[in-house]
Amino acid sequence: KNVPNPLAHRLCTHTSAMKNRDVESDDSSASEHAAEGERGTQSGLACFGVSATLGMLVCALVPAAVILALQLTALKDVGEDFPSSVWTFEMKPGYNDICHKIFKIMNWTVILCFVGMIVSSMKICVDAATFAQHSEGSQSTQGPVGMVVSCMFNLVRFAQFVVSIWGFLVLWKIDKDECSDCEHLYNVAWWIYVGLSIIGLIVSCCVVLPALVVFFGFGSAMLLDHDSRRASEGPDPLLSVHPAY
């Protein structure tokens, strides 16, 4: 009869326990590495979100601030009791009706520019909070505040677009000789409503149209290459087999 050796049994038990501890330690170290990698990814996304938010804020506010400064400089020269003339629409005496019309349009533009800068800052903050929630792994939804801010942002943009079209039509029909009394106001208004529109149209034609040509050309080249490969490979053998009835 084979008598079990208690020393061998104890040695086997100890060896299997050590193996189990090694496996558990390997699993725990792997989970720790995965957790560290996840924390690093989240911190990287957070840094990227902060950088993107600051970049969006600078790109949104700096051009608007420059245009706003030019408009305020022009309105200061002709406004009665500036800066209250921005919302009272009171102009110094001695100017004709055309100057009053340009003054009124530019006042509305300045008011909407202030409102737009405030709403844009609010929207960027809401978008940053939404991105932070998404980077943390939670479901990113705007919520009631985000929806209200988005609605306000769209309304302000629409109002700015309407005032821009209004200014473009007025400045396009006015002759410079009719604004000799408010020449500086006319020059600033012309560049803001007409000049920037023309520059934007030229940039769109020089950038968007070549990009579309390159996009469609690249797509056509891919389709032709795919067709040439299919033609070189020959017909599909599965399609060439006729069914037997």
Walk me through the structure:
This protein has 245 residues and is an all-alpha fold. The radius of gyration is 34 Å and the shape is flat. The model is unreliable at 1-5 (pLDDT under 50). 11% of the residues are buried. It has 6 helices and no strands. The protein has helices at residues 6-78, 85-88, 97-135, 143-173, 183-233, 237-240.
Average pLDDT works out at: 75
Oligomeric assembly = single chain
Kindly name the structural category: mainly alpha
How does the overall form come out from the CA principal axes? flat
Strand content: under 5%
- Which residues form runs of ≥5 with pLDDT under 50? 1-5
How many individual helices? 6
What are the secondary-structure elements, in order, as H or E? HHHHHH
Helix content: over 70%
The span between the termini is 73 Å
Largest sheet: none
From the alpha carbons, calculate the radius of gyration and give it in angstroms.
34 Å
Strand runs, count: 0
